[in-house]
Each structure stands twice: as structure tokens, then as C-alpha cells.
Amino acid sequence: MKKPWNSIFVASLLLCSSQSYANADKLALEDCHIDGIKQKVQCGTLQVPENYQVPAGTQISVNFAVIPAIDKTQNKEPLMFLAGGPGQAAAEIAASLRQGFTQVRKTRDLILVDQRGTGKSNPLQCEEVDDVDPYASIPEDLDVEDIKQCLAQFEGDLSQFNTENAIRDFDAVRAALGYEKIAIYGGSYGTRAGLVFMRMFPDSLSAVVLDSVGPIEVPIGTFGQSSARSFNMLIQHCMEEATCKQAYPNLAQEFATVMERLSEKPITTTITHPRLGTPTEFVISRLKFVSTLRMQLYTVEMRTMVPLVVHQAFLGNFAPLAGLTAMQDSSMGMYVGLLFNIVCNEDVPRISDEMWRKDADNNFGQDASHLAWKTVCPVWPQYRLNETFYQPVTTNVPTLIISGDVDPVTPPSNGEYSDKSLPNSKHLILKNSGHTPGPSTCAINIIDEFLTIKDPNVLDESCLNKIPSESFMTSLNGSI
């Protein structure tokens, strides 16, 4: 059976100088077209050392795209986008970023770099990742042999595919393009990368936006408590909204009942394939159910459907859950090799048994978010960063920090770590907003103003008071 890679989503390097190794002779740049964008953009590659401690050794190619500003006459510094994951390729989501950052790109170029290990920058992807049957597979199917087969597909020194080298690559692209300074926007894991950028190359940065912070002080991987917090806020908001409460008066108990049933054994049912219309076997386990729901908690738009999905599952109808599975299957786009390489080496070793236990003590998925790490990390090749990597970042670069109040993976408490350590920062918490709310209409205008005046403390934040409350789907015909 093809294994459920998508469903699991759920050190000496600091001794190296923070010098940029950019070389114009190693830069290739040309006009091109990218899927989803009609206008020409620029596509580029830059040759960089695989190991920056051996600059004349093996070279790798870093891929990037530049979306030109609508009006370049103001000559503003460009905005470099640091993607999430770890494992997201920035250039592959160029169309959505172009749309979401329209206000910013009116006067600024957008630079999208595929982090080493993603996209066209020496991707670390398992060959079968796109062949998984999301309906028949369950997270519990993952085993050590799958990991070994994945690892056998990779070439190069995996220890060099780390966060610090990624930042060296990003700054090398900046220098090769001829920019003295840039602004950066990091979303999710991109905030961790952004913080490391601030530490390693502060003089390269004019301003920083950290959207949904993964602070250096908090290891990536323990999402049990934060997911439960987000889910419990959803239930609370449902009970505060008259039509949702009327439709699902026992929502919390119905969820608990479904989880109890699935804890006994997985349920197998036949559904109509959401896209093909053919009879399809659909297997639902405890981990699959809660992992699918967790993905819906990321955005307010997807949270809308969660009460309906839970209620219908309680009634024995898993077709709505299958619909969510289809949507999730088509939108993951993660390079899981890089995801595991970074998290298993830079984060999981810092999680104690007591931290795992406390994180699993919740009323949503318990330890469901731990399975992948505990299966994969013991067999993944190891590297370790210097302890200095884990110290709070204190750089005096103007920084705007954004958190979504109902975010299931990077709650507002994460943003407080960076706000306390950074001397020139402001932390905005957007109510009724999920993960990476920066591109929303309100936040993107605040971001654009911040990038212009570079003072996080004098921004027009009035739109934050106009963010609407959550609303929920109350019937199968789509009523809200």
C-alpha cells in the first residue's frame, strides 16, 4: 500500500562566518512565466556552496522568482518572502502570494526563494508522496521501512540542509541581485527563518514582518495543546452563535463520542469519490479524523465546516469528512524530506518526555500530532546546531509581529516570546483569525504601512476592531 505521507502533517555551523558568498558569475536571471500569473516575471538560479564551511566544494542551485512591482519609480526595497513548513517552496505559491500581497507589490518587488530542499532547489521529496490514496490510507500505516525508502532517494549531505544554510542562501540571493537592504516577511516556519536571518545578517534588513511566530525558544512539533485550544475556541464560538448552537447543541460530546468509536477500531465505508464520482473505499481512523479536523482549524474559512463534519460523523455520515480529505490532498505541497530533516534535528531533540506528556494531556487529539516525529526522527540522519542557535534574538531591526487568535499551531503566546526579546517590535493579535492572517485585507494594509514608515508603534490599527465573528455551516446544503 502507498503510505500516507500527506496525512502525517499534520554543531559547528555557527562557527562559520556570516559572510555572504554571492557571486554574480553564478547568477542566472531571465524573464519567464509562472503558472497562475499572466504577466512576465523573472526566474533565477544562484549557485551556492552546499557546505558554506567549504566554499570551493560541492555547489548547489538555489531557485528563485522575482515578481516585479507594479510601480517601480518609488525605488523601494523589495520584500523577500520566507515560506512555511519547513518544506514549502516559495516560488511554487507565487500566484497566491502575488494576489495576497497586491497592496505591497504596488511599489515593491517580491522575491520568492525556494529554500534548499524544496521546489527546484535540490528538493528533498519522497518519490511516492503524490501517489498516496488519501481515502484508503491512514496515518497509523507509517512505519520505519517507509522512512528508510524515502531516505534512499536523497543525494548530498543532509546535514547541510539546515535553517542557517538556508538563510545564507537567502542573503546570497539578495546580494547577487544587487540590493543593499531588503525587507522580509516570514509566515509560520518562515518566522523562525526570519529570526535567524535577523541574527545572522541584521545589516541586510530594513524591516521584518513575522506572521504566526514559531519562536526559536519553542520547539516545533508539540501541537496538542495549541490545537485543543483552537478547537475549544471553535466550540465556544459555536455556542455563542444562535444558529450554530441550535444546530449542534451537543457538539463537544458528539466529537468525544466519535473519537471513542474510532479509538476502538477504524471505520471503513464506501463513499462517492468527491472528484471522480466513483464508489471509493474510505477508511477513517482516530488519527485520520483528528488530523483532518486539525488542518481545517488553520483558516476561518475552513473552520466554518468543522461543526457540520463532526455532527455528520456522529450520525455515521463520513461523506463531508471525505470532502475535506479531497481538499487537503490537493493543497499540501510540502517537501516532507526537508520537513523531517529540520524538525527532527533542530527541534525534536529539545522536547523532553515531560513536554510530550503535557502536550498530550488535552481533549482534542491527545498525542495524535506526535506520531510522525516519534516514528521518523529516531531513524533520520542526525546533525546538531550550536546551542547559540537557540538563544532569543535581540536584533534592533523594526519588526511587526502578527498572530491569529484561533491559530491551532502558533498561538499568540508564541508571538510574545519574540515581542519580549526584540527591542523594536509590536505584536498585533487578530481576533477570530487563524494561521498566517497577514494577507487578509486588514493586516496587509497594516503591513504595507509598516514597510513604508518602519515604525511598528505608530500604525493605523483601526481595522482590527472590524474583524467579524466566526460563522458556521449549519446544514448539508451550505447554509451559514
TrEMBL record:
Residue ranges occupied by any AB hydrolase-1 domain in the UniProt entry: 78-213
Keywords: Hydrolase, Signal
Pfam families: Abhydrolase_1, Abhydrolase_4
GO biological processes: proteolysis
Signal sequence region: 1-22
A GO cellular component annotation in the UniProt record: membrane
Domain Peptidase S33 tripeptidyl aminopeptidase-like C-terminal span(s) in chain numbering: 371-463
Signal in keyword set: yes
Molecular function in Gene Ontology: peptidase activity
Family: Belongs to the peptidase S33 family.
Full protein name: Pimeloyl-ACP methyl ester carboxylesterase
Organism of origin: Thalassotalea piscium
